[in-house]
Amino acid sequence: MVDWIYLVILISSGLLVASIFTSLAAFRFGAPLLLVFLFVGLAAGEDGLGLQFSDAGSAYFIGSLALAVILFDSGFGTTMRSFRQAAGPAMTLATVGVLLTAALVGVAAHILLGLGVLQSLLLGAIVGSTDAAAVFFLLRIGQITVRERVRSTLEIESGSNDPMAIFLTVVLVESIAAGISSPDASVLIGFVQQMGLGVVFGLGGGLLIAITVNRINLEGALYPVMVLGGALFLFALTGLLGGSGFLAVYVAGLVAGNRRLRAANELRRFQGGMTWLAQIVMFVMLGLYAAPSEFLAAAPGALLLAFVLIFVARPIAVWLCLLPFGFRAREQVFLGWVGLRGAVSILLAILPVIAELPNGQLYFNTVFIVVLVSLVLQGWTIRPMARWLKLIVPPTIGPLNRVELELPGTAHHELVVYRVTDGSPVARGARLPRWARPSLIIRDGQSMKYQQVRQLKPGDNVYVFTAPRFVRLLDRLFAGPTAVAQDDRDFFGVFDVDPTQPVHTLAALYGLTLPDGIAKMTIANFIASKVGGSAEVGDRVALETVELVVREVDEEGRTSAAGLAIVEEPGTAAPRRIGAGLLDVYRRAKR
């Protein structure tokens, strides 16, 4: 009597495993992996192996749950530095850009498909947002390294534009179902309510998640489960109270991910696995729900609509939205091209079917074809397009592994593992700074102490204890000659500092509170007092919200040139930006 349970589990796990193994071929041929998952669902569906799945309500429920997991992880993996850098253009694209895209596609749908005004706008709203899963996969997992501002804009836009598309789609579906010819002012009130509650609950929920993780003592494996449960609880609660749950989980992920968290690396690994599972389940499920035999009737209009979206609507929307932000022409072209549509659009196309609107299945079939064209045409050509536009930069060398250490007291360090590459600074004899504490070297399968090694050689595995904020600076030392690491300013400080000046000059510029006895010390003497007398190039001395960095030393080990770096750790208040301008004035006056 319970054989059906085993059958369901057998089929579900079989599709999951088949999707994972099929991904091996996708990596080899450069195919968009999410497209592969979609085709696995199509192959197993009613027009393939014959599996029947036609419950629109269940499909929308499963897809919404998976999307919430994906958006939370998207926010969790976005650094505040990237967000600040690209928030303006990304949020403009996520709001105004979605409206422009929906309007332009709506005009095309009205002309090409002969739909009414609201029906055409509904079709435009459904395909109005880019897909977070597709964009994040192609940029992060696909290892397409483009310039940081462009990359950050794409990632933040794709993670934050779904709430706008969902809101527009729901409003238009309800208006058409109620026979309303045009939405009234209540739409604007509803928009403000949904987005406002989404932001407020997201900020509060993300902060609460971070505080809870750091305040309670649990079995280590329970922290990721608690965080995911909290994110889904926040998603549901915000939706029940009339807000955008999708926006709330993205903002919560952004807030929590940029604070110092206990077991942060374990959290990220767990969420990475859950995000993969959510993406596979969502795409395979949507493939199962579709019926390719019904696509033929909708194909001509859908193909034309897809080309309008890709070559007209998205580029125009990007160009208009980015005019105030100073992007170069080729960056705008690339941002316009990476407007992949994916599972979100297919998920929204189920709503007209659930609402039993006239031509409800036409919406779904048309959107499904548009998504297929987008994933094939745009997803397969992102790397060649980035190369043609000369936007690809060589990737930085990062650690092979990172292990967070819970040390007694307030110490917070990680054990990171690097492999020395040929031609890297450390392979050419550069010394590791004192804030990086090498504990072990693995060479030719033999372990040895760092003190036993005269010089690191290519192929060595180096185990280093360091604070998390310094890891990206270590990347620079282990990068090969063809890799573009962080700018030297990251390593040596953003601003020049005269080490002969008294420390109180910095305190006045940055509003620092100095301990007794150091205000009149020179910067060089202050650094010497903190490092034990003789300074070394790369030494860093913290002073509240800034760090003093040793750039050069004289023969006696005294600091002869120094830099100033701004501390940007998660959860650390940013220094007053006016200090940068005042420091420039100070340098000019000194000259």
UniProtKB/TrEMBL annotation:
GO molecular function: antiporter activity
Entry keyword annotation includes NADP: no
Species name: Devosia oryzisoli
InterPro entries found in the cross-reference section: Cation/H_exchanger_TM, Na+/solute_symporter_sf, Transptr-assoc_dom
One term under GO cellular component: plasma membrane
Gene3D superfamilies per UniProt: 1.20.1530.20
Annotated Transporter-associated domain residues: 488-568
GO biological process, any: proton transmembrane transport
Pfam family, one: CorC_HlyC
Keywords: Antiport, Cell membrane, Ion transport, Membrane, Transmembrane, Transmembrane helix, Transport
Protein name: Potassium/proton antiporter
Transmembrane stretches, start-end: 6-27, 34-53, 59-78, 90-115, 121-142, 187-213, 243-261, 273-291, 297-322, 334-355, 361-382
Cell location: Cell membrane
Membrane-protein topology: Multi-pass membrane protein
